[in-house]
Amino acid sequence: AKANTPGLDQKNFDVNMIAKHGFDLRDKMGSLLAAKFDFSGPTGIAEAYASIFPEPARFEKVHEAFKSNAIRFLEQIRHISIHRAGIADEAFCKNTEKFCKEFSLPSYRPDQEISVDGEQLEKFTNASIKAACALLAFLDPRLAELEKTPPGTT
Fold first, then answer.
1. pLDDT tens string 73-110
2. CB-count burial class (<10 Å; 0-12, 13-18, 19+) for 52
């Protein structure tokens, strides 16, 4: 989670912050939570959902899916692709060493161009689908309840 954001603590919003948005946060939650959580990777995403839905036992499948090594490896590849144009640096090499062993890949070297083959892409895609399905299965009953609630009564 990010450092404390003025007007936003663990489970509460400051009234002034709510007033700033006209007391209607239906389409503002993402913006408000983005200030508190790091949505750039699966760990921050899982933390955000876990804080909103305080049901740790029921959220465990989502947490497991987001913590899978395939998802964490994909996060590293996404990061290096975006921030270093797909060229490995020391941090990437260190952060992916255990993943390379697990997935029977050669270790990366600094300044090496990162590529993903079809088999790797399949593993990452399947892990991403599993994480998305776990999240949707968790959210579906909660979202259905919200749809039944008239606006302004939650």
1. 999 999 999 999 999 999 999 999 999 999 888 899 99
2. middle
